[in-house]
Specification:
The protein is α/β, with parallel strands linked by helices and about 280 residues long. The protein is about 45% helix and about 15% strand. The chain has a 7-stranded parallel beta sheet, sandwiched between helices. Bound molecules: NADP nicotinamide-adenine-dinucleotide phosphate. The site of NADP nicotinamide-adenine-dinucleotide phosphate has 31 residues, from helix 1 and strand 2.
């Protein structure tokens, strides 16, 4: 049982692994013995994280834009030149167009969110299937781990981020579809839905931490160990009976529902609309 969570000998690829939640997961994987490829668009940011992680284990990087099918195909080809197989694919890269009134949403802002948050998850999984299949078996499954959000499940986030919430709900249903269709060949697909983790994307959790934690039942925002620990669980032997699941890690936030008192501090004009 002592090596139940070990990732020794496993190879992983984490999109958006240069900063934020992806970097937290990448660090956890490296720490638990995996060789990890981190992927993002900005090479200077990737290099910095890769050097940091290479000091504790095996880490490499590949520059790619996973919001287009062309970018995904190039990434899969680059990866296949370096490695014969992939054991763990983490579809983490994501974006938001921020809180918007309905009239402010454009086709461009909608597509930017959908292309990265939802479309990329399907086509990344499709492109990496040959690599995922190599080492996959019912006893030692390969893993696809998607990062959705509590904005896609449970109670509504009444900041009304339309494209973001819809994209994340789509990820959760896609997870169930892919999970069911691929499990027979030893490829297990699961999703993690984080609550509030302080990152560049979640500036509210980063810049208003004290205010935000008052409305979270656990009285704090998410930390690296929470997200990395859940991803390590899913990627390890410990999690190899999970298929098509969606694990929420949010300190109870989605059970209670996000509190309007927090919005009043951060977006006073918005709350004045009194919906
Ligand atoms: N933070 C939270 O509280 C929270 C809560 C729920 C869900 N999530 C989800 O967790 C995931 C990560 O969020 P985060 O907060 O860590 O975001 P973040 O800090 O903004 O990091 C996003 C990462 O994705 C990369 N990326 C962005 N666009 C990309 C593209 N087109 N191709 C390849 N890489 C791209 C970024 O690097 P480059 O810009 O260099 O490409 C960066 O590494 C997202 O799916 C998000 O929706 C976050």
């Amino acid at each position: 049982m002592k090596d139940l969570f070990s990732l020794e000998g496993r190879t992983a690829l984490v999109t958006g692994g240069s900063v934020g939640i992806g970097a937290m997961i990448a660090e956890g994987f490296v720490d638990f013995g995996a060789k990890v490829y981190i992927v993002a668009r900005r090479e200077d940011v990737l290099t910095k994280k890769q050097e940091e992680l290479a000091a504790i284990g095996a880490c490499e990087y590949i520059v790619a834009d996973v919001s287009t099918v062309d970018g995904i195909k190039r990434l899969a080809a680059d990866y296949a030149e370096r490695e014969k197989s992939l054991d763990i694919l983490v579809n983490n890269a994501g974006t938001s167009d921020g809180r918007k009134e309905i009239e402010e949403v454009t086709e461009e802002t909608w597509d930017t969110v959908m292309d990265l948050n939802l479309k990329s998850i399907f086509f990344m999984t499709q492109a990496f299937l040959p690599s995922l299949r190599v080492g996959a078996s019912p006893e030692t499954p390969s893993n696809v781990i998607n990062i959705a959000s509590i904005d896609g499940c449970g109670k509504l986030n009444t900041a009304y981020n339309y494209a973001y919430g819809a994209s994340k709900a789509g990820v959760i249903q896609l997870d169930r579809l892919l999970g069911d269709s691929l499990a027979w060949e030893g490829i297990h697909v699961n999703t993690i839905s984080p609550g509030d983790f302080p990152t560049a994307l979640n500036k509210a959790a980063r810049d208003y931490t004290d205010e935000m934690k008052k409305s979270i039942p656990a009285k704090r925002v998410g930390e690296m160990e929470n997200i990395a620990g859940t991803a390590i669980f899913l990627a390890s032997r410990a999690g190899n009976y999970n298929v098509g699941s969606n694990i929420v890690i949010d300190g109870g936030e989605s059970v209670r529902g996000i509190q309007r008192s927090f919005f009043a501090k951060v977006w006073p004009d918005f709350v004045k609309l009194d919906r």
